[in-house]
Amino acid sequence: MSDKIYVGVDLGGTAIKVGICGESGKLLQTYEGPTGAEGGADAVIERIAQYARKVVEESPFEWEQVAGVGAGLAGFLDIPEGIVKLSPNLGWRNVPVKKVLEEKLGKVVTIDNDANVAALGEAWSGAGAGIPNVICYTLGTGVGGGIIIGGKIYQGSFGMAGELGHMSIVPDLEAIQCGCGQFGCLETVSSATGIVRAARDAVERGDKTSLSTIHTLAAKDVFDAAKAGDEVALRIVNRAAYYLGRSMATLAVILNPQRFIIGGGVSKAGDILFNPIREIFKKYTQEQVQEGVDIVPATLGNDAGVVGAAGLNLSR
Ligand SMILES: [Zn+2]
User: Fold this and answer.
1) What is the CA(135)–ligand 1 centre distance, in A?
2) Using one digit for the tens of pLDDT, what is the confidence trace for 77-100?
3) Do 172 and 61 reside in the same domain of the chain?
4) In CATH, what number is assigned to the domain containing residue 75?
């Protein structure tokens, strides 16, 4: 076999996942091991190098076929230089990941933030395969995002583009403070955290809802209650969907993507979330702009990160 292969690294706080993709973005082989973050940055980077070699060793491919190695990381990054400026969850400050990994592996290494990388994964071989311009939302504890234009991650001038969760969208009267310090970010209403907070507030206010019987509320409880017809839960879900739909209407007139992809734990709620998002998008977007645009669930699940990381060298 002489085809080129791409190695992707999804560096998490507890586990490092590495994978091999072919030119089409199909995930061909994976390997996973502990991060061991407590051992410090040098040890973690050494482990990444070991796992990258291991995944290729265990595959039918040769190391010579590796056209590049990509890594998705959380934190503040200098993407062109490949430096992790600050990663609170790993306890890293100014770690030159690209340089060190390139020395260890003898291959081109590219890093990017985990949300952009997941978006690239979906765009390459997931729900956006074959479509050049897509915008991805990841709905989890927060709201992450990535903008893919012409098959490439749009970084912005200083690598800050695609922070969809921090779009300022909730009007002042209803706005609460976001983890980023600003008020009224999309994340405050449409993340799992935002949905659970709204449910708790409703229960504390004494609203009549089945949610009041649940001790430790999760976003899934709110969706389940909404599906069962609980009006309070339905109101919370519709509010989360409303702001997502409004944000897409705004992005559609600015960037004119062909597809919006929604992934992350919250997206598993299905039609109860997607239908109102589509309705709101349709209602607030000019007919000419919404023509040919769809809103679909992500398809790669937890593999999006490793696939997108593998694609980082392909897309440059
Ligand atoms: Zn924010």
Assistant:
1) 18
2) 999 999 999 998 889 999 999 999
3) no
4) 3.30.420.40
